Amino acid sequence: MRRLLAAWRLLRAVLHVLHGMLVMTRFPLLDAAGRHERIRWWSVGLLRAVGMAVQVSGTAPRPGATLVVANHISWIDIAAIHAAAPHARFVSKADVLAWPLLGWLIKNAGTLFIERERKRDAVRVVHAMAQAMQAGDTVAVFPEGTTGAGSELLPFHANLLQAAIATATPVQPIVLRFADAQQAYSPSVQYIGETTLLQSVWRVASARGLTAHVHVMPPIGTTHADRRALAAHLRELMAAELPA
């Protein structure tokens, strides 16, 4: 029975992704507010398609120059954050471009890509982020640099925070947590170790009672900040919001 439910959810998700691709072809005809509303609609719809509810707490970031930092758990993090902040442009590993269907959508949503195996590529991305925020965009990053189990935060990398410091842009933390009916941190959503994308998608679709908790924290000023000290401070604040 669970396999049938998972298969049905995956079918709904694929159809929703295809619908999203069709909607995105109309983006050039829409203003910013129209695009953001459709991104929110699509993100919430994807979560529902795989059987996941979403709960947003705190005051969602408003459109404008902001650097959103979030903990990283799974491929579905972007949809969860876009449910609260559909105007955010993500910085993502270039690997996601190879993801079926989702890679195309992520690219056309204005994502900035970083090639992490090239150490100097971070400098290019910092400049691109600074230009985006100077133009009034909200940019979102995962300072852990990779996915974790969710119950604890990995060390934060400070490099990308320099874009906010250089432009005196506030940083707004978002803490993600995926729970199920039995556990505050559902193992079904974890995308770690040798888990493939397809395996992770199947585990999510097979789970029951999943809820994405998106907690938006107050923004923090960055004027004259030290990037390593800022990274440590953000990690401490965000860790305090994770239930024991």
Residues in β-strands, percent: 15-25%
| Helix run count | 8
Mean pLDDT across residues:
92
Share of helical residues: 40-55%
CATH architecture: 3-Layer(aba) Sandwich
Reading off the top of the CATH hierarchy, the class is best stated as: Alpha Beta
Can you tell me the CATH topology? Glycerol-3-phosphate (1)-acyltransferase
Total domain modules:
1
Number of strands: 7
Backbone structural class? alpha/beta
Q: How do the helices and strands follow one another from N- to C-terminus? A: HHEEHEHEHEHEHEH
Shape: globular
Q: How can the largest sheet be summarized?
A: 7 strands, mixed
Cα-to-Cα separation, first versus last residue: 33 Å
Structure notes:
The protein has 244 residues and is an alpha/beta fold. 40% of the residues lie in helices and 16% in strands. It has helices at 2-24, 32-49, 77-84, 102-108, 121-134, 162-166, 197-206, 227-239; strands spanning 52-57, 66-70, 88-93, 112-114, 138-141, 171-179, 210-216. It has a seven-stranded mixed β-sheet, sandwiched between helices. Strand 3, helix 4 (102-108) and strand 4 (112-114) form a beta-alpha-beta unit. Helix 1 runs antiparallel to helix 2.
